[in-house]
Structures are given as C-alpha cells and as structure tokens.
Amino acid sequence: MTSAMMNRRLSREVIAAGLGRRAEPTPVTRADIEGLPEVVRRYLGFMGVVGRPRDWSFRASLRGRFRTAPDQRWMRIEAEQYNTALEVARFFHMKARLFGVLPVLARDTYANKSGRMLVKVFDLFTMVDASGHEFDVGELVTYLNDGILLAPSMLLGPNTEWYQTDDDAFDVALTDGSIRVAAHVTVDERGAVTCFETMDRFVQDPFDREHRLIRARWTTPITGWQKQSGRQLPSGGSAIWHLSKGEFKYVELEFSKVVFNVAPSSTSPDAFE
Questions:
Q1: Which residues of the chain form beta strands (DSSP E)?
Q2: CA-to-CA dists, residue 111 to 19, 20, 83, 133, angstroms
Q3: Rounded to an integer, what distance in angstroms lies between the CA atom of residue 38 and that of residue 122?
Q4: What is the pLDDT of residues 181-195, one digit of tens each?
Q5: Are 105 and 1 in contact (CB under 8 A)?
Q6: Residues 6+ apart with CB under 8 A from 65
Q7: H helices within the chain, ranges in order?
Q8: CATH number of 3-260: 2.50.20, 1.10.287, 2.30.30, 1.10.390?
C-alpha cells in the first residue's frame, strides 16, 4: 500500500464519521488561562497558545519504527493521523511490513465515544479487531496525549481538568461522555513537556504466554522540541509499556508534517482545505 492509498483510506474513514467540518475560533487570551495552575500556564506559554486562535483539528504525517514484542525486530513505519475537537475524535492509520514482507495496515480510532483497533494484512485479512471499554479508555487517553504534545488549545474547555503536582509537573484529566481519563505530565524549566504518563491504557502483555489484556503504565518520553512555522513541536519521542517483567519500548516516532485546523475532507497533508 502506498502513502497516497493510506491517505485516501484515512480521509474516507474521517468523512464517513460525519464530524464537524470547520470552526471559527477566537484567540486564546491571558484571561482564559489565568485560573490555571502556574506550571500549566508555563507549559501553555512555551507552546505559544496565548494570542493564537484555538486549534480545532490537525492532520499529521509520522514516520519511525515499531515492534510488537521485546524480542521482535523493528519495522519501519509510516503513519497518517487526523484529530478533531469539534466532536472528540482521533483517526490513526499506520503501515508496515510484517517480517519485512507482509504489508500490514493498522488503524486506531476514537469516534462517537468508542475506541477500536483494527489490523489487516494486505488491508484484506483481519489480524486484530478489538473494541470495548478498555479500547474506549485507551484511545481517549491517546487523544489526550496528542493534545498535550501538539495542540493544547484543543483541550482548553470545561471537559478538561488541570492540577499542579509540583513545580515541574501537573495532572490533567479529560472527560468525554461517561469516559474519563487522566495523565501525569512533567515539564522542564521552559515548560516543555519531557514525559506524559498514564495508567489508562491496556496492552496484551508480551511477556505473558497467553498475551492477556492488562492495564499498564504507559509513557511517551520526548527527546526534544523544535520550532516549525512558529509552533513548538516534538522533534521525536517514543512510547513505552512499563510491565511487571520489564519495560517494553514498542514505537519510536517523529512528525514529518503537522498542519492545523483542516476540514475532514482533506485527502493528504499536501491538499488541505
């Protein structure tokens, strides 16, 4: 599957979800954030939120490497993603070659307060099709992770709670309908995020012969930050499961392109409305 084909499939899925198409947001003011804890204001200052219109969506292209078990060889991956705050939703499509040969397309989605993981070989034969409460929670907290790292103004609303835990850390919680997720975020002296941590994700334990689905600590440490088009974006990061038998880093990613406030009908990062 080519990147263009993956883009088209992502676009079709987003359009089929019937999401809100566009918003005309007003700029975030200092008054909008003055009631938030000091460390959160420092973080939002580093991210350049004040004075810029609230983001309501973004489209991202990513690349990196991925594996499904600690003893598995890394696979090169490409991914495309669309998030919107008009109706909380996240669509993530990733392509890879299993064993270096078999083309695999994996989809992680959160829409209409439901999460789903779907993995197909040749985009025809289903390997994984999982949904339910654990995936509702896991996909929503991943949406929260995306917002913290890329578009914090998408989280500035009554459904998000912020709590300072010390001078360089805060807790954040997001509610969507009956689903509530929470995370712990650490920042440096500038306010730049260094790590996002949550217990609201579930994994099929790779150290367990039966690969039972368990709740586990999940972290996304950030390697650094860079400015692109006046915005702070992560220069790279990874995702790690912290399990009883050890840590398992399973993905390393970098954002090759991120474009903000685009309609669901955009078909590729180079064809935004």
A1: 57-66, 75-84, 89-98, 102-111, 114-121, 125-131, 160-166, 169-176, 179-187, 193-204, 213-219, 222-228, 231-243, 246-260
A2: 9, 12, 10, 13
A3: 49
A4: 999 999 999 999 999
A5: yes
A6: 74, 75, 76, 77, 251, 252
A7: 3-16, 30-33, 38-46, 133-150
A8: 2.50.20
Residues 171/176/177/182 CA torsion (nearest 10 deg): -20
Confidence band, pLDDT 50/70/90 cuts, at residue 266: low
C-alpha 273: how far from chain center: 22
pLDDT tens per residue, range 130-163? 999 999 999 999 999 999 999 999 999 999 999 9
Q: Taking the complete model, does pTM exceed 0.85, yes or no?
A: yes
Output the six-digit token pair for 146. Answer: 């995306």
Every domain of the chain and the residues it spans: 3-260
209 exposure class (CB count in 10 Å sphere: 0-12, 13-18, 19+): exposed
Residue tagged 């263009």 (tokens): 4
> Strand 179-187 relative to strand 213-219: parallel, antiparallel, unpaired?
unpaired
SS3 7: helix
